[in-house]
């Protein structure tokens, strides 16, 4: 049976009428992109508060553009250095950015309080709130947390997380998946439409910055990058600053900073709803150090050793990136007795590192104490076999940012609420793997503490 016949059979098994001639035409037209008609339809749609008509021209540009996370050599050096340097210059991870995050957390707490202890799925609201922290950096604005924006941000983060998963159907059979997407078969077709909407949103923000060139600030992420592009074009510098990389970097920073932090926090909340004794200890420590009203500062983390250990254990216990993003051997090497030729794609097993019984006793158990030193008053910040943000030169550049966010959200929630499962239920630890390893959607109760 041919590939085309296999696809037709698969479609019919899903209740879809798929003709073999349609598949042949798609293969001939290299249908890794949606049709021009579909793109035009998306461009003509209006999306309240987020997507407006932005007059994009028909383009062959990839929906998921390249970024510093997916390139090598000099291109990687230039793109990563620019992103990291700009984050530092704009104060990300510093006191002024902390104040911005604290304000976002307070708004999030207010939204939680509206439910008055009723069970609900916090995922969408949490995704939108966390996404606003990175949005305030790269776009210099936050999106109001209303139903339209919450849905847009959640769908964008979820779609790219699933579409860019390091393992799975699309990774193993990319060409077959692209054909099925173009035929509207499988959930990947829906993901791709959401990704197009998000990509258009990113391009719109870039176009707005270009139009406001007279007011440009070279220290801002987009404005500074546009200056680099103009310098490259005017002086023929031959560097890698171009619009494709700009769009890709914006997408990578936005999704990377949103999906990972949101997923880590979701697992933490499920752990608290499961292990109420641990949650009580967190409450006690926070009450003794901060009370129920004082806002947490990053400098306070050493005074909350048990709470910080809970956050670290959450990242080990449920490794949100169980398989690291792919790496490529740049030369022939021998590792552990294995010959690895140049050009080999390497995928590290982060889950194995965090569940190695040589370093972790009963690794399947949630035990924050394993990160505390003997006196219980200090945290072991650099334990062996612990790499939640990867390792080496290509580790996550946003480690400090993510830890600040997790600490601020977690402490604020623990100050105000007791996190519980719906009455008569227990939290589910089932999960799915996309860009991150995230729990299945489920409801929790946030009961106001007296």
TrEMBL record:
<dbReference type="GO" id="GO:0016712">
    <property type="term" value="F:oxidoreductase activity, acting on paired donors, with incorporation or reduction of molecular oxygen, reduced flavin or flavoprotein as one donor, and incorporation of one atom of oxygen"/>
</dbReference>
<dbReference type="InterPro" id="IPR002401">
    <property type="entry name" value="Cyt_P450_E_grp-I"/>
</dbReference>
<keyword id="KW-0479">Metal-binding</keyword>
<comment type="function">
    <text>May be involved in the metabolism of insect hormones and in the breakdown of synthetic insecticides.</text>
</comment>
<keyword id="KW-0492">Microsome</keyword>
<keyword id="KW-0503">Monooxygenase</keyword>
<dbReference type="InterPro" id="IPR050182">
    <property type="entry name" value="Cytochrome_P450_fam2"/>
</dbReference>
<dbReference type="GO" id="GO:0020037">
    <property type="term" value="F:heme binding"/>
</dbReference>
<feature type="binding site" description="axial binding residue">
    <location>
        <position position="396"/>
    </location>
    <ligand>
        <name>heme</name>
    </ligand>
</feature>
<keyword id="KW-0349">Heme</keyword>
<protein>
    <submittedName>
        <fullName>Cytochrome P450 2U1</fullName>
    </submittedName>
</protein>
<dbReference type="GO" id="GO:0005506">
    <property type="term" value="F:iron ion binding"/>
</dbReference>
<dbReference type="Pfam" id="PF00067">
    <property type="entry name" value="p450"/>
</dbReference>
<dbReference type="GO" id="GO:0006082">
    <property type="term" value="P:organic acid metabolic process"/>
</dbReference>
<dbReference type="InterPro" id="IPR001128">
    <property type="entry name" value="Cyt_P450"/>
</dbReference>
<dbReference type="InterPro" id="IPR036396">
    <property type="entry name" value="Cyt_P450_sf"/>
</dbReference>
<keyword id="KW-0408">Iron</keyword>
<comment type="similarity">
    <text>Belongs to the cytochrome P450 family.</text>
</comment>
<dbReference type="InterPro" id="IPR017972">
    <property type="entry name" value="Cyt_P450_CS"/>
</dbReference>
<keyword id="KW-0256">Endoplasmic reticulum</keyword>
<keyword id="KW-0472">Membrane</keyword>
<dbReference type="GO" id="GO:0005789">
    <property type="term" value="C:endoplasmic reticulum membrane"/>
</dbReference>
<keyword id="KW-0560">Oxidoreductase</keyword>
<dbReference type="GO" id="GO:0006805">
    <property type="term" value="P:xenobiotic metabolic process"/>
</dbReference>
